[in-house]
Amino acid sequence: MGKTLAYLRASTDKQDTNNQKLEILEYARKQDIKIDDFIELTISSRKSPKQRRIEELSHRLDPSDTLIVTELSRLGRSTAEVIALVNALVEKSIRVIILKQNLDIRQHDMNSKIIITLFSLFGELERDLVSSRTKEALSAKKAQGQILGKPRGTIQKSKFDAHQEKIKELLGIGLSVRKIARVLGYSSHIALNAYINKRQIKGEKMGT
Predict the structure, then answer these.
(1) CA 156 to CA 160: how far, in whole Å?
(2) Who contacts 52 (Cβ-Cβ below 8 Å, separation ≥6)?
(3) What average pLDDT does the segment 53-60 reach?
(4) Rounded to two decimals, what is the model's pTM?
(5) Residue 130 lies in a domain
């Protein structure tokens, strides 16, 4: 018999995981399931899977184990991400129970196979819709005469900006770009030279 883990996540400090824990414990009591461990944290869904301990969760679950969550949204920040995780777990023969959606997904169960197929279709549909909306929005902006992308000639911030005055000063006393890079601790004089040319930086002679 495999172990059972419960994953609890609240998005902000204004929420907490207590209600989720109580809901899972009540379900476990009714189903006579022993919860071996809780993984709980308060963190936004926008954080990385590692920060949300999803990677840890996946590594801790072995074949024949069970994962319980209160709802699908606890597992990811998008439909596609949630579906990918659930599919990966079920492929490892891990049972996934989602209370709010009343889902009990097992690899060898016909209903589970239907659910997983639908999940995959929904994930593909979401990706297509996002792509379509992005293309439509760009086309609409283009039709309105808006210039897409950064205007030509836009100067982006550079790591060399912090030393721009020093660069001018060193150029002014006749140092080569290679030596300036060495003095300022930069590994590439080529990148510095490109920066100087793009900014059209000229040396400033020291006052006498």
Answers:
(1) 11
(2) 9, 41, 43, 45
(3) 86
(4) 0.55
(5) no
CATH number at residue 28: 3.40.50.1390
**4-10 and 103-105 beta bridge pairing:** unpaired
Same domain, 14 and 86: yes
Structure tokens at 7: 């994953």
How many alpha carbons fall within 13 Å on the CB side of residue 41?
A: 15
* Residue 204 structural domain: 150-208
pLDDT digits (tens, 9 = 90+) for 23-49: 999 999 999 999 999 998 887 767 777
pLDDT digits (tens, 9 = 90+) for 92-151: 889 999 998 888 888 666 776 677 677 666 666 666 666 676 777 777 777 777 665 555
- What is the number of structural domains in the chain? 2
Same domain, 116 and 165: no
Radius of gyration of the chain (CA): 28
Its sign, for the CA torsion 146, 136, 80, 78, is: positive
Look at the alpha carbons of 94, 97, 98, 104 in this order and tell me if their dihedral is positive or negative: positive
